[in-house]
Amino acid sequence: MSNQYVLVINSGSSSLKFAVIDSQTGEAPLTGLGECFGLPEAEISWKYQGEKTVEAISADGNHHQCAFERVVKLLETLSLSSKFVAVGHRIVAGGETFKGTVKVDESVIQEVDRLAELAPLHNKANAEGMRAAMTAFPSLPQFAIFDTAFHQTMPAKAFMYALPYELYEEHKVRRYGAHGTSHYYVSREAAKMLDKSLGESSFITVHLGNGASVSAVKNGECVDTSMGLTPLAGLMMGTRCGDLDPSVIEFLFRKGWEKDEVFEMMNKKSGFLGVSGVTSDARGVLEEMEAGNTRAKLAFDIFTYRVAKYIASYLVALDSLDAIVFTGGIGENSLPIRREILNNLKLLGFVEDEKGNEDARFGNAGLIATSELLGAKALVIPTNEEFVIAQESVALMK
Ligand code: ADP
Fold first, then answer.
1. What kind of architecture, by CATH, is found in domain 196-380?
2. What is the dihedral of CA 33, 37, 40, 41, to 10 degrees?
3. What is d(CA 310, CA 229) in angstroms, rounded to the nearest whole number?
4. Rounded to two decimals, what is the model's pTM?
């Protein structure tokens, strides 16, 4: 069977990621990223046949639109326009409407736009991305793959908040989760790696990137996850605070803060950045910590402690555990962070495989710890959300 390539579009609030991907092998001849939209340093970069190119995006005009037009031109120049058979879009919030991948049409775009109340910056950009791609590639089928869809199997006891039930009935206030495509992918890869049947498997998947979340995955289905109504909940992240006492918000209002200021602070000025006072980037936090910065050390401690607490608490959602699976930029690469999380879990019997932990970095999967007590492993599995988007798109074409 000949290769079936898919153009994958991930239109973020201030970025545009794109890739042309083989839906069977995951090989990607072209990958690229437009970033810093809205800022003077907005740029677009791509990697084609191993070679990287970076271009500035003009300061005037709509950066999303300029970047998308540049991608379309690039695909033509590289003779890739006729190579892909579908366009797959990563969509952040699907609410309760979208429980799986759907073919894009005007009604889907409108519903994604309406669901922007759950992810204001992301869903608007996602809807615009779908519109732009429908115009640029009118003859190709387009598919929407939702970050929340994998979490739609959660039972009500996991997704409901202890608020008046009417808030759920009237406004669908509940936990939706995020990073679903990543939790889906690594749970399947973990079953393969351990030679387990997916239908009889139990994993705690830990996606640690700029955004971070943990999921409990039982027999291939999500049964709990740490992000909530929005991706602000759960773990501490690069710039997001994660869980806190909701009264902090009311307390700050009483201190004279405005609503937008409070939410900007919790989304963009908290997490690694807020605690360390230096950077939102885990590598930078680790460097500062090594240089003796005590606030960077505190950021590291809060982060690793909270991840471990979530992992331990998700044992409640499972009957047994086959593996904890680390993924995302931090989970795939950071030896000290993984080591400290496992250290915090020593009561569960996890013993680090030091060589395994050293080796499982920079794109390498591996076994990094074992617990005799639980009969469980800790694994590192690089995520590949784009590959899932390409696979889902081609599967739905059939
Ligand atoms: P996003 O959520 O934006 O997709 P990524 O999954 O790419 O983010 O993860 C970005 C995070 O991964 C950053 O905090 C970065 O510092 C961290 N990271 C990447 N490589 C390493 C490394 N070698 N050691 C520690 N952290 C790393």
1. 2-Layer Sandwich (3.30)
2. -20
3. 18
4. 0.95
